[in-house]
């Protein structure tokens, strides 16, 4: 049996349904009874960025062999425990890199140029009363990227096409990178106009965007988050936006999804998206094909398509 933890993709769900005895965790009202009846038949878990496999779930499934995540981020999977229990883990790298990087650029443009706000301006009939306000030029602005993994590099390449100088922070300098390295997030924030979160969420990167970083980014700076909500101290970000201590933010992720701080709803200097970084038909189908391919490989005793190398030491960033 395969346990799916989160309604994520009809395409994936349909395929899994035809191939396996599929259990949908979100439809189960009485989990203890369900586990008593079926736990011993469940050999695989399919999770995603919001619902993975924590120690409690792993312990409730004595025959679990593999966790196949419909995501590149694995912060909802207890990787150390999977290693300890000999459970294999797979994710969906590469196929979503373009979409997430495209959306990061989209957030930069829509935040600096007020694209969403000006759309509302026209729809609200306000143009008849006068021109929309002047906004902020994007091309040529300094872009600072936290995490120079696959997604970070893809964002950098796109921003270079807009003549943006690129700088980055990561735990260690990348000797082969041509981009300017800053040894701390605070120094990166002080050195750029647009600060982008593109690193994995680990204990080390939780709240990597805090009051000090936001103050360093300053009243002309913009924050773009296409990583995870908990990368940011959200109450600190809300007050920085309300008090205009930073110029604006483009956010695709939040600390307590799908709940978004309502103080943000009335602000014109923030763009709010519902975690759609990889949310295109093409990419989600490609991700589903990876999940399906990994499960088929596992059960047919063939090499996994995208295995996650365990153990991940607490400081190793799985580069998105
Ligand atoms: C997930 C994500 O794919 O890949 C990740 O880490 O955050 C998203 O792209 C999405 O949450 C799947 O439901």
From TrEMBL:
Q: Where is the D-isomer specific 2-hydroxyacid dehydrogenase catalytic domain?
A: 33-308
* Segments forming domain D-isomer specific 2-hydroxyacid dehydrogenase NAD-binding: 105-277
- The name under which this protein is listed is Hydroxyphenylpyruvate reductase
Annotated organism of origin? Artemisia annua
The shown range, given as first to last of full length, is 6 to 325 of 728
């Amino acid at each position: 049996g395969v346990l799916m933890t989160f309604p994520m993709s009809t395409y994936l769900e349909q395929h899994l349904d035809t191939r396996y005895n599929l259990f949908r965790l979100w439809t189960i009202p009485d989990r203890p009874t369900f586990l008593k009846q079926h736990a011993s038949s469940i050999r695989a878990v399919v999770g995603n960025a919001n619902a993975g496999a924590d120690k409690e779930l792993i312990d409730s499934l004595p025959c679990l062999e593999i966790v196949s995540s419909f995501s590149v981020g694995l912060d909802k999977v207890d990787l150390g425990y999977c290693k300890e229990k000999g459970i294999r883990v797979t994710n969906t790298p590469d196929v979503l890199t373009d979409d997430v990087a495209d959306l990061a650029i989209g957030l930069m443009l829509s935040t600096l140029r007020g694209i969403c706000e000006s759309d509302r301006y026209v729809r609200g009939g306000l143009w008849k009363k006068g021109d929309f306000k002047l906004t902020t030029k994007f091309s040529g602005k300094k872009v600072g990227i936290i995490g120079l993994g696959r997604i970070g590099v893809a964002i950098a390449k796109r921003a270079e096409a807009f003549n943006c100088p690129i700088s980055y922070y990561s735990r260690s300098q990348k000797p082969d990178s041509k981009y300017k390295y800053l040894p701390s997030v605070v120094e990166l924030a002080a050195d750029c106009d647009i600060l982008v979160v593109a690193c994995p969420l680990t204990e080390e990167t939780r709240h990597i965007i805090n009051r000090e970083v936001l103050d360093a980014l300053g009243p002309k700076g913009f924050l773009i988050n296409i990583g995870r909500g908990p990368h940011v101290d959200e109450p600190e970000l809300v007050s920085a936006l309300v008090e205009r201590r930073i110029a604006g933010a483009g956010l695709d992720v939040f600390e307590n999804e799908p709940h978004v701080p309502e103080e943000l709803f009335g602000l014109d200097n923030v763009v709010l998206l519902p975690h759609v970084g990889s949310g295109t038909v093409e990419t989600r189908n490609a991700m589903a094909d990876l999940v399906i391919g990994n499960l088929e490989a596992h059960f047919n005793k063939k090499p996994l398509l995208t295995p996650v190398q365990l153990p991940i030491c607490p400081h190793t960033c799985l580069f998105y």
